[in-house]
Amino acid sequence: MTKVQLKGVRKDFGAFTAISQIDLDINSGELVALLGPSGCGKTTTLRMIAGLEVPTYGHILFDDDDVSEVPVQDRQVGMVFQRYALFPHMTVEKNVMFGLKVRGTPKAEIEERLEEILDVVQLQQFRHRFPAQLSGGQMQRVAIARTLITKPSVLMMDEPLANLDTKLRGEMRRFIRELQQRLGITTIFVTHDQIEAMELADRVAVIFDGKLAQYDAPDALYQRPNSVEIADFMGANNIFAAQISASGLATAAFGTLQLDRDIVTVREGAGRILLRSEAIDLLLEEPDGENVIEGTVEGREFFGATVNYTVTCGGEIITVNEQSRRLVEVGQKVWLRIEPRHIWAIRDDA
Ligand code: ATP
């Protein structure tokens, strides 16, 4: 198990700065997702950690040793890519053994590790097949096995599930998570899909425009984003301009909401408030108490298990997400209630 640190890392390609400054600590055995939109610098960051690129400035440490200039073959990292890059003329077991063979590992050891790894990735029954005879998920498991058999100290995955359909992606995510936890291998996973990042990772590093925008556990990132840009990227749909007072009141176009004390102390002034759509109660009768907003259901999107309502409130549209145990009609007058702890405030100058 290896701890990975990036200290003041920058990467220029000629006059273009791909990464302007990144500091990142990845604990031993942790799974960290690098998340961000296309072109933000995720792959470049991963390639520097792997040793495929050298940082222009800054340092990369593995267990406190500076490896910034150590080439990829001496770093003991394993890489899995979106394209599986399996050898088409080799069977599953030959593909998996390949890395050890070229290193000259003794035959007995290769065979022992092969059995172990085929069990781990559940590919025993496919060992004599060729890649063309496998499904996408099976091919990706071969690619993972081929990497794991070399016993890397850090596992890197660059959009490994991008070629798979939705259902298989879900299965492979659970497979990777379970495998990673069982082996306790430090893993860095690149994705542009926020759901994938939240589902898989212990911590998520959000990268925007070559900078680390936030580094947090999935729930913290989702519930307490540092900026409106991050909230938006994480899928927030209720972001409203508000004036936040020292006493903890947020005044928006649809009314005034009481905020949680802890939020207020640092958030006074002009800002935005974030109402998590799944934390809003949709009521058909006016309740007593504070943090109630009156509105009318304007639209309904049915997703099966859950349903989204768009509710017009004082000229703004608030989205409410709830279980579809009941269905409320469009045109219905409703009251929305949200507890202070489910409201997050961001200052405009944050
Ligand atoms: P994607 O999700 O599309 O793969 P990414 O976040 O992984 O994107 P990178 O591949 O790290 O992004 O690229 C970051 C920026 O650096 C991009 O603008 C890219 O064009 C640029 N870049 C990457 N590699 C090079 C290179 N070798 N030479 C010049 N520019 C590069």
From TrEMBL:
The cellular component terms of Gene Ontology attached to this UniProt record, alphabetical and capped at eight, are: ATP-binding cassette (ABC) transporter complex
One example of the protein's molecular function in GO is:
ATP hydrolysis activity
Q: Which Pfam families match?
A: ABC_tran, TOBE_2
Domain spans labelled ABC transporter = 4-234
**Signal peptide: which range, if any?**
none
Q: Which UniProt keywords apply?
A: ATP-binding, Nucleotide-binding, Transport
Q: Which family does it belong to?
A: Belongs to the ABC transporter superfamily.
The name under which this protein is listed is ABC transporter ATP-binding protein
What organism is this sequence from? Harenicola maris
